[in-house]
Structure formats: structure tokens, C-alpha cells
Amino acid sequence: MGRFFARLDQAAGGYAIDLPLYALSAVFALVTALSSTLLPHRAWGSIAAWAYADAFLLALLQFLGYRAVRDRIDATGRAWRVLRALVGNRARATLTWITWSAAALLPLVVQAVQRADGRTDRAQEEVLVVERMGERLLTDGTPYLSRDAIAALPADERLMGYSPYQPGMSVFGLPRAMFGDVWWTDARIWFALFTALTLITAMALLRKRSTTRALQAVTVLPVCALTLATGGDDIPVLALCLLALAFAATDRYGWAGVAVGAAAACKLFALPVVAVLAILAMAVARGGKLLPGALGLPILVLIPPFQVAQDAFLENVIRFPLGHGLVTSPAQSPFPGYLIAQHVPEGRFVALGLLLVVAAAITVRILWWPPRTPSSASLIIGWGLLAAILLMPTTRFGYLLYPIAFLVWAGALVPLVRNSPAKPALRNHTATSSPLDDTALYRR
Question: Who contacts 236 (Cβ-Cβ below 8 Å, separation ≥6)?
Fold first, then answer.
């Protein structure tokens, strides 16, 4: 199976997937711009559609160049060398970064500027929630309102009184709290800067692996670009988890613990990743390096809010997501868990029961057959999160960015084997691969 996906990833020099990806993304962005009921989404689509269309045209030119030089590897001259540099995997990665800048970062900045100028329809609610967490952290010492304080708000404001994130998320709201309502204090700006630095670090760690597809899965994929431009709180959490896997893949388990611990300090959604990485680390005798950061950071950030008001944390982070708050979460995408909860008698308990069964099955699997490579751990995380998202009574369509990214990153975490005279079997197998490809074959 791994060999099949390796071949698929590099089919036609990688452009067999790149071209449909950019084309379908352009269609998605255009449909979003014309039909979405969420105004920040429509604003994103009106810019991203052009960005993806341009990316498709550039990828098409790269593909044509790839075909031109594919059978002329022995051709000499400066022109041929330049052309090869413009159509290889490094060129594809460069196009990915450019597309991300145009399809995610540019719409983000435009919306942040418009919001600073007075537009109230240029950010999703989670942006405001994170910024208010930063304000409360500065003024009250805790980012959370108590249940009584939320109940005292007008009925139509109680939803925004909840902050269903870990205390670490409030850090992204501090610039707004300290410097006021200017475009660069928008929480999304800091989400994006942090994500960019995190992904650059991960790419540097995995530089000897096939990373272009993995980079696309967390940047230019519409569900990621749209999320970052309009809301953004999930993207830095996902990037930290992927960085943790990259550290583990390069045997830096101490830093992997810091990265995944920081993710869990921002959002409870990262706890399954902590659990799987902890089992991986113990299976390869690296638990002593990973566990202090992975477990210590999420606990450390709880100390200030627990000292101020422990029940406020429980109300916001535990009761509200489980449906026991004063208001109901708007996260209600029509996945099986939500449909069961809505249309089956006692459906919420049925959906939770199915979720617990799946969780138990995954737990037994990883305890009985623990993952021994970051790649296998990434696959377990991806499939496990996908099952959880589908079965949770309350969830969002955008959460699919997590399992997609983990499943795709599994391939990037596997070391590559290049042609070598000492391995004639590999040399024979890859004889049909283009020398333009920077990658060869995943190690089995």
C-alpha cells in the first residue's frame, strides 16, 4: 500500500495530483464566493478563486516543462538546467508556498484591515473569542468567565461568553488586548505567523523526505486556507502536532514533547495526539524525553486559571463542549454522530456510545500493537480523529483538516531510499522514475 501511494504521489512528476488539486480548489473557492451564507467565507472565496486559478496555470506550465525535459535528461546547456530546476519537486514546493500566501494569507490580511476599518463581518466568532480570552487574561488573571457571569449576560451574548479552549490559546489574543484594534493585532495574523514558522521548521527537519504533498495538505487545501483566513485557531494547533511528528521522525523526542504539549495547552483536540505519541515514545524507549513536555505544558498552563476560578475552566472547556453549558454549541455539521443525536431516540447517548466503542478499539490496538514509527503513529492519529469527528454529536466540517493532514503526513515521515549500487533491487525498481523527482521510494 505504501508503495502504491508513493507511486501515486510522484505520478507525472507529482502533477497528476497537483493539477486536479488546484483546479478543484479554484472551483470550491468560486462556489464559496457565490453561495456561502457566511460573509467572511465569501470574502475569502472572492480572492482565493483567483489564487487557485493562477496556481493551476502555473502548475500546468510546470507540467509542460516537465514533459519537455522528462526524456531529455542527457541534454546539456544552461537552458535545460534552468528548465529542470523549474519543474522539479522543489519548484512544486515553492508554488505551494506562493499559493498559500495568495489563497490564505492575502485574504486574511485584507479581512483584518477591513475589520480594523470598521467592518463587523470580516471575522468568524472564534477570532473574537480568542481575543477576549487575551483581554480577560490581562485584566482578571484567567481567560474564562464563570457560569454565573455568563448567565448575567444578555441571552444573545451568552454564546460569546464561552471560551472552549485551553488557556494557552489566549496568548494569540494578547496583541489585541495590549495594543488595541489595529489590523496587525488581529488574532489571525498571529495564528498565521506562528503557523508559518512552525511549518518552516518542520520542512527543514524533513528536508530529506517527500514533503510537498504534506505541505499542501496543511496549507493550500481549501479547508485549511479557508479556516486560517476566516477563523484560524485550529491551524497553529495542527501545525504544532505535525511539528511534533517531524521531531519524532528525526529522533528529537524531547522537542516533540514540547511541540505536542504546546498544542494540547491550546486545545484539548490535541490530547489524542499526545496519547499516541506517548505510546510511540515508550515503545522506542524515548518516553523519558517526550513525556515531561507533552504532559507538563498542558498542566502548567492550568495553574493560573485554577488559582483564580477552577469552576470557570470546567464550565468553558469541559461542560460547554459536552453540551451542558447555558447555551448550545453552534458546531453542528451533518455527520453521522450529529444525525444520530438529532433523529434517533436518546440519540446523543447512542452517538457517544459509538464514539466510546471506537475509542476503546483504538486504545486496545495501540496498547497491544503499539506504533514504532512516527509514520504509523500519524496514520493511527488520522484514522482515529476521522472516526471521532464523524461520530461526535457536535462537530464541525472544518475539523476534517486534522485527519486529512495526519494521513497525508504519514508518507512524509518515512525516510527515503535513493538509488545505490549496493541495492540493485531498488535500482531496478526505480529505473523508470524520472531523475527530475527529488524523491525515490519510501523505505518499507
Answer: 172, 191, 194, 195, 198, 266
pTM of the model: 0.89
- Pair 171, 263: CB distance under 8 Å: no
- The string of DSSP codes covering 22-71 is HHHHHHHHHHHHHH-SSHHHHHHHHHHHHHHHHHHHHHHHHHHHHHHHHT
Report in angstroms the alpha-carbon separations of 81 from 68, 91, 218, 314: 12, 13, 31, 61
CA distance 185 to 181: 7
Q: What is the pLDDT along the chain (444 residues), one digit of tens a residue?
A: 456 566 777 777 789 999 999 999 999 999 999 999 999 999 999 999 999 999 999 999 999 888 877 766 555 556 556 666 677 788 999 999 999 999 999 999 999 999 999 999 999 999 999 999 999 999 999 999 999 999 999 988 999 999 999 999 999 999 999 999 999 999 999 999 999 999 999 999 998 777 899 999 999 999 999 999 999 899 999 999 999 999 999 999 999 999 999 999 999 989 999 999 999 999 999 999 999 999 999 999 999 899 998 999 999 998 888 778 888 877 667 777 778 877 778 777 787 788 888 888 888 888 899 999 999 999 999 999 998 888 887 777 888 999 999 999 998 898 754 443 444 433 333 333 333 444 333 333
Residues in the chain: 444
